[in-house]
Specification:
The protein is of the alpha/beta class and 412 residues long. The protein has two domains: 33 residues; 329 residues, Purple Acid Phosphatase, chain A, domain 2 (4-Layer Sandwich). Helices cover 33% and strands 22% of the residues. It contains 15 helices and 17 strands. The strands form three sheets. Strands 2, 3, 4, 5, 14, 15, 16 and 17 form an eight-stranded mixed sheet that branches. Strands 1-7-8-10-11-13-12 form a seven-stranded mixed sheet, with helices on one face. It has a two-stranded antiparallel sheet with strand order 6-9. The termini are far apart. The relative contact order is 0.12.
């Protein structure tokens, strides 16, 4: 009995002696087992209205919907907002004179801000673009199966243009991403990551290329995919080949279905369709595009962001989602004719129920007039662009010129 008593006293004294280390150890265990969340505090996220990209340091468990940590940070879910533009190709061979002038007169930072300076205030929520050219100092490399003469590349350092514009996610899933070889593609990927822009749509093999970027905005978790549905197929990733996320309709839809239960909303960026010679309109999407767009929404997507044609295409509401068949070019330093005139930003609001609202913001991209710095069109010209691509304005449509007071003053 005395032995038991002495043992108990020894244990209690030991606990008292080591109380602080034990407390710290227990606290560390609790922190380690709590769902990891975001690099900012909840208050900063809510007040700043900034999107947060999940990465290896803050990835959440799949049970995110029931997570107390999430509910503490976002007591309620508000619809996530994504603002998207079309093709971006920062070809300095074309923009060199303009950028060199601004560097000499105002400094390098001003030159990097310049291309998106007149529209960056409209890139709200999750900023998205399709990066049509690699950003790298690796040399151009030709493909055996490429049936066009155009190869694009932007010099290392030009990624700062995208940073200052306010983009959060960039699709690399297109037919030009390997114009400087696999080395250039992965160099582009790393350069974007370094400036906190999430690249999506490429990988060391098809499994990694098909993975989406997971993004939080206003308490809503969004998966953003990027698919490339055009040739050459040598750009597509394979089981043992690096490249873009491309393949059959069934493969792409399966990727969407796989994550649909883990998120509140799914956005799909897709490079598809034929190129056009003028900037608008692409009167009708191809039958295959319509079929695939509908399949992707049936699989769980709420928003399809199309590009590749280099001209604006129609907008279609389908079920609880929306399809932008082509956003055309945006800052695309490779075209310099007056026929290359207009583009638009699109802003969508998404919730668990699907599309909540959408806004079209038309811009002038005619390089002869705006010198590779797109300008928002006034009411009259902008309304004409909207009417060309959107034949029916439903209850989800939010008119930019009516809702944005600053735009009303610019009516023509």
């Amino acid at each position: 009995m005395n032995i038991i008593k002495k043992t108990g006293i020894y244990i209690m004294n030991s606990v008292r002696k080591h109380r602080r280390p034990l407390f710290l150890f227990a606290l560390l265990v609790i922190i380690a087992c709590t769902p990891k969340m975001i690099k900012h505090s909840g208050d900063e996220i809510m007040k700043g209205d900034e999107p947060v990209i999940e990465d290896s340091k803050n990835t959440l468990d799949y049970g995110y919907k029931d997570s107390k940590a999430i509910k503490n940070i976002w007591p309620r879910k508000d619809p996530a907002v994504i603002t998207a533009v079309g093709d971006v190709a920062l070809n300095f061979a074309t923009m060199k004179e303009i950028l060199d002038y601004r560097i000499s007169k105002y400094g390098k930072k001003d030159a990097m801000i310049y291309p998106f300076s007149k529209v960056s205030k409209e890139i709200k929520g999750i900023g998205f673009c399709n990066l049509e050219s690699p950003i790298t100092n690796y040399d151009i490399k030709s493909f055996n199966d490429k049936d066009e003469v155009f190869y694009f590349s932007s010099p290392g350092g030009s990624e700062d243009i995208l940073k200052y514009a306010g983009f959060d996610v960039a699709s690399l899933a297109n037919n030009h991403v390997k114009d400087a070889g696999e080395e250039g593609m992965f160099d582009t990927y790393k350069r974007l990551e370094k400036i906190n822009i999430a690249p999506v749509g490429v990988g060391k093999d098809i499994a990694s290329a098909l993975k989406p970027v997971f993004t939080w905005h206003r308490g809503t978790r969004v998966a953003i995919f990027a698919f490339n549905n055009v040739v050459p197929k040598s750009v597509w990733a394979g089981p043992d080949r690096a490249g873009t996320a491309g393949g059959s309709d069934e493969l792409l839809c399966a990727a969407v279905k796989k994550v649909r239960g883990e998120v509140d909303a799914v956005v799909v960026s897709i490079h598809w369709g034929q190129e056009v010679t003028s900037d608008y309109p692409v009167n009708q999407p191809e039958k295959e595009q319509v079929e695939l767009g509908h399949k992707l929404i049936d699989a769980g997507a709420s928003c399809i962001i199309g590009h590749q044609s280099h001209g604006l295409g129609p907008v279609e509401r389908y079920k609880n989602g929306i399809i932008f068949y082509s956003l055309g070019d945006f800052v695309f330093a490779g075209r310099h004719s007056a026929a290359h005139r207009t583009s638009m930003l699109v802003r969508v609001s998404l919730s668990e129920a699907g599309l909540e609202s959408y806004t079209l913001i038309p811009v002038n991209i005619n390089p002869l007039e705006v010198k590779y710095s797109p300008e928002i069109l006034g009411r009259k010209s902008g309304a004409s662009v909207i009417d060309r691509v959107l034949t029916v304005k439903d209850d989800k449509y939010s008119d930019y010129y009516s809702d944005d007071k600053s735009a009303i003053g610019s009516a023509e």
